[in-house]
Amino acid sequence: MVSCPHRIPDVSRSVPVVPPALLAAALALTLTSCAGGGGGGGGDGEGTRKGAAGLRDPYFPKLGNGGYDVTHYTLTLGYTPPSGTATAAHLRGTAVITARATRDLGAFNLDLRGMDVASVAVEGAAARWKRAGQELTVTPGGGLDEGETFRTTVRYSGTPETITDPDGSQEGWLPTADGVLALGEPTGSMTWFPGNHHPSDKAAYDITVTVPEGLRAVSNGELTSETVDGGRATYSWRVVEPMASYLATIAVGRYEIGRYEIGRSTVGRGEGKGRLPVYVAVDPTQAEDSRAVLGRIPEVVAWAEGKFGPYPFSSTGAIVERPQDVAYALETQNRPVFPGAPGLPLLVHELAHQWYGDSVTPKSWRDMWLNEGFATYAEWLWEEDHGGDSAQETFDALYDGDHFRDAEANEAVWDFPPAKPPSAARISDSPVYERGAMVLHKIRQAVGDAAFFELIRGWAAAHRHGNADTADFTAYAEKFAAKAAPDADLTPVWEDWLYGEGRPPKP
To answer: Which of 50, 191, 290, 409 is the most exposed place for a label (fewest CB within 10 A)?
Structure first.
């Protein structure tokens, strides 16, 4: 990592021993060298009002930044794979970040881990900047007023990092056999572009990636252009609906591409009419094994619209790739990523996330069960509707310790309440998934089937393209139940199943 110079020294300590003229000249020289443009940054906005460096997320307190709200990212990236004496891939990027100041700002922070920053500008004028860990602190000339919309341009390059998460899994920049895959949950997106990398700040995106001819670059949203010039191919993608940065992805490699359109359900509301584009990119080594399951995307989307409401985005699809040392799927927006040929339950799970997690995104990483509990319950519902175990049978097997083949895995369901993971290393553990789904089933038991399915559709609609936390959900469910199922008592659901320690009493 290349850092810009340290902050300007506290010159007041030097006044008694340094001649004033010499002090003034030295200070002027220091300020000039840190003004941006030529040799990098400096300045940290001391003495000015600064946006917070971190949003105090319960598990990742330094993630995200205060003082502004991002509305749009324009990312222009150039990727060069390892070759000859270059043993690592190289990424060159320009990020234009459009944001609105939510307070007066003399300085603000962006999350960027690794990479070398060449320059930073705000509204076209060179800005001072400095690096400290994952924080890129920007000091624009003249400051920013509350309510002001501003554009920050960061030019950077290098080899993005691979991050090892607290749970031991890897994310960020993940090499593949013929390219790379970028995955961001929970913190990996800051390895390949600067931004406000907390799920509570969602934005639209334009992502353009230039790669050597013969490789493809796949990302979120819709492919708006594809050109080849001078041995390099450029792919431009657009995401219109708001997206959390951890759901952004780029996949570079040699892919078999499938493109078609499917009909959209109106679900009785007149929404989602027309055709839904599908874009599927598959590593050729996985194509044969993936074909049958991926061919069921139209069926799964149609089924999910019947359960959860209109599909929330303007395209769908999948990426099948084999990054090194990665064995998890991820619900990257519009286009879930699978580490090899997916099974049908996993396809159902990741597509259900388009409603629960991607459209309705958690306010913090403490609320992961709102993603994973819903997507896991979607798997139960699919089985129930397609000749498999009923949701009640799956619930009973989990409660009785018969669901998993491994006894330790069955006991792990009760390690902690789904709404209170004990640490960042546990936010993807079984209680968040299986016990989170059990919470939803207990609500279904309490209010009845008709009211339950109306509730989960209403939840997806009420927070469409927004953020919500557990308190929002319990309040929504209580208010809904008071009207749709006035005799239902949800208090035991919250006390015993959502927040309670250990295995609740026999239901």
So the answer is: 409
Dihedral angle at the C-alpha atoms of 396, 401, 402, 405, nearest 10 degrees?
150
**Do residues 171 and 37 share a domain?**
yes
Which tokens sit at 291? 């074909």
Query: Does 285 reside within a domain?
Result: yes
What does the mean pLDDT of the chain come to? 90
Helix (H, G, I), strand (E, B) or coil at 341: coil
Give the total number of structural domains in the chain: 3
Q: Are 430 and 372 within 8 A, CB to CB?
A: no
Compare 18 and 288 and report the one with higher pLDDT. 288
Do 380 and 437 lie in one domain? The reply is yes
CA-to-CA distance for 431 and 437, rounded, in angstroms? 9
The angle, 0 to 180 degrees and rounded to 10, between the axes of the packed helices 470-484 and 369-385 is: 50
Q: Are residues 61 and 115 in the same domain?
A: yes
Same domain, 106 and 239: yes
List pLDDT tens digits, range 28-69.
333 333 334 333 444 444 446 889 898 999 999 999 999 999
Q: Which of the 8 DSSP states describes residue 457?
A: H
d(CA 505, CA 436): 17
Q: Are residues 419 and 438 in the same domain?
A: yes
Sign of torsion over alpha carbons 132, 134, 139, 144: negative
Same domain, 369 and 470: yes
- Cα separation of 231 and 281, whole Å? 22
Per-residue pLDDT tens over the stretch 206-254: 999 999 999 999 999 999 999 999 999 999 999 999 999 999 999 999 9
Per-residue confidence (pLDDT) for residue 37, from 0 to 100: 38
Surface-to-core class of residue 197, CB atoms within 10 Å of its CB (0-12 exposed, 13-18 middle, 19+ buried): buried
Least confident of 28-37, 74-83, 280-289: 28-37
Domain that holds residue 339: 264-354
H/E run at residue 269: none
- Taking the CB of residue 406, how many other CB atoms lie within 10 A of it? 8
Residue-wise pLDDT for 349-362, tens only, equals 999 999 999 999 99
Domain final residue pick, 219, 254, 289:
254
Report DSSP state, residue 425: G
Residue after which a domain boundary falls, among 220, 254, 288: 254
CATH of the domain at 366: 1.10.390.10
- Among candidates 68, 111, 51, 114, which has minimal Cα distance to 245? 111
Are residue 229 and residue 315 in the same domain, yes or no?
no
Q: What is the model's pTM?
A: 0.90
Place of tokens 């669901």: 403
